[in-house]
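Methods, example record. To illustrate the input and output format used throughout this study, we show the complete record for Zinc ribbon domain-containing protein. The sequence lines were provided to the predictor; the line carrying structure tokens was produced by it.
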Amino acid sequence: MPTTNTPLVLYVYRCTVCGHSGKLHLPESSPEVTTACSACGAEVQAEWDGGVELTTNEPE
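The corresponding predicted structure is encoded as:
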């Protein structure tokens, strides 16, 4: 079975409602991503942190 590497981009955010700092790993590479705060659910702008990680889509 072939192995597929998917680059994941690190995004970070700080919620202006509750102050929670969070991060996301997403396959996109746009400068900003709108998402929900994982602590309170408020809409936040996550910004690209510049880090890219490669993951392997292999069954564990």
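Annotations derived from this record:
Residues 5-49 form one domain.
The chain has a mean pLDDT of 80.
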